[in-house]
């Protein structure tokens, strides 16, 4: 009997809270964003201690750029900074610029883990099975050596241009 009364009170309290607070969508607060970034960096995203075995040569960075361009540019733009991506800022969560502090402070191992496994429930899909480990490490090198924002133009898929 006590369990039923306690459950009823919880339901009533929940309904009352919904009525008083309303059901509205709002952007997350700065505090909520900081908690989400901390959680991703320290709990969700693994690979923190993994070391990139691929040396940062001009050839490997260019290979990483080519792999990135074949898969990632649709959301991140050719330059990794969302240039020309019409929905990058309007999706929730927004597509991050890969030049941002939030992204660049991940370790190489964490970036590779994100490329391989994606981040749920964001729009970042996993690419496991699409690229070899070495290709993913090369993409990490490209992310570490991004060109100036806008310098590569926008993806042809959005500009209507053909390559």
Strand content: under 5%
Tell me the number of helical segments per DSSP (H or I, 4 or more residues long): 8
Which structural class should the secondary elements be placed in?
Answer: mainly alpha
Taken in chain order, the helices and strands follow as HHHHHHHH
Profile the largest sheet. none
Which value, in Å, is the CA radius of gyration? 21 Å
Amino- and carboxy-terminal Cα gap: 72 Å
What's the helical proportion of residues? 40-55%
Low-confidence stretches: none
Mean pLDDT: 85
* Overall form: globular
Strands, total number? 0
What are the defining features of this structure?
163 residues, mainly alpha, globular, 8 helices
Descriptive overview:
With 163 residues, this protein is an all-alpha fold. It contains 8 helices and no strands. Helix 3 crosses helix 7 and helix 6 (108-117) crosses helix 7 (133-144). The longest helix is centred in the first third of the chain and has 20 residues, at 2-21.
Short note summarizing the structure:
With 163 residues, the protein is mainly alpha-helical. The chain has helices at residues 2-21, 30-44, 58-71, 73-76, 101-104, 108-117, 133-144, 156-159. Helix 3 (58-71) packs across helix 7 and helix 6 (108-117) packs across helix 7.
Question: How are the elements arranged and paired?
Answer:
Layout: H1 2-21, H2 30-44, H3 58-71, H4 73-76, H5 101-104, H6 108-117, H7 133-144, H8 156-159
């Amino acid at each position: 009997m006590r369990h039923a009364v306690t459950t009823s009170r919880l339901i009533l309290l929940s309904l009352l809270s919904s009525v008083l607070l309303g059901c509205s969508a709002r952007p997350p607060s700065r505090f909520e964003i900081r908690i989400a970034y901390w959680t991703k960096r320290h709990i969700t995203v693994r690979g923190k201690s993994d070391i990139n075995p691929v040396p940062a040569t001009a050839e490997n960075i260019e290979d990483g750029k080519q792999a990135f361009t074949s898969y990632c540019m649709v959301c991140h733009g050719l330059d990794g900074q969302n240039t020309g991506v019409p929905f990058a800022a309007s999706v929730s969560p927004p597509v991050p610029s890969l030049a941002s502090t939030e992204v660049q402070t991940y370790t190489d191992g964490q970036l590779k883990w994100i490329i391989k496994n994606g981040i749920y429930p964001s729009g970042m899909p996993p690419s496991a099975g699409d690229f070899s480990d070495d290709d993913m490490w090369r993409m990490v090198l490209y992310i570490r050596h991004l060109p100036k924002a806008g310098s590569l133009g926008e993806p042809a898929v959005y500009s209507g241009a053909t390559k």
